[in-house]
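Researcher: Can you fold this with 5-O-phosphono-beta-D-ribofuranosylamine in place?
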Amino acid sequence: AGIVVLVSGSGTNLQALIDAAADPAYGVRILAVGADRAGITGLHRAAAAGIPTFVCRVQDYPDRGAWDAALADLIGVHEPALVVSAGFMKILGPAVLGRFTVVNTHPALLPAFPGAHAVRDAIAYGAKVTGCTVHVVDAGVDTGPVIAQTAVEVRDDDTEESLHERIKTVERHLLVDVVGRAAREGVTVTDRKATIP
Ligand code: GRF
């Protein structure tokens, strides 16, 4: 099954998918990697692996709707079975979400700590346990049905950086596992329950 991965930053989750996809037994091909900005490490990782890339920047379009439609077309060229948002820092619109099943990885145990500062927020709250979530993307911010989660302990001496590093170590494994199954077998959502057959 083919996937398109969307990134905005360092792309360590993307790299985990690239490494997994190198084994034919994984059964997933990364057809393209898209970003909302140029020059990021995630795009370099894709290029180094010989994967086609594209950039779709909000500021190049008259409004969010036009950007969303353009992004849907750029993804659609590759006809992916699944789209993976792996550290993609833009809210996806109806054109993309109406056309593709999209899964996202988030560095907290949703519905706790949604948004762009999940790790910082968990520490500031004084949470003792946080983790990561892979979920189906819907129109909200980190509100879609949960597919899988892994818990990570928060240590007394954790900084945002140290905790995020530990989360990302388990996040990579969770993402590779879920994306493999979801791309090969599809995701169904019934009554907010996301299942992979
Ligand atoms: C991940 O923790 C992801 O959940 C969050 O940002 C981080 C992205 O890291 N939204 P990377 O770009 O995959 O290295």
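Model: Folded with 5-O-phosphono-beta-D-ribofuranosylamine in place. The chain has a mean pLDDT of 97.
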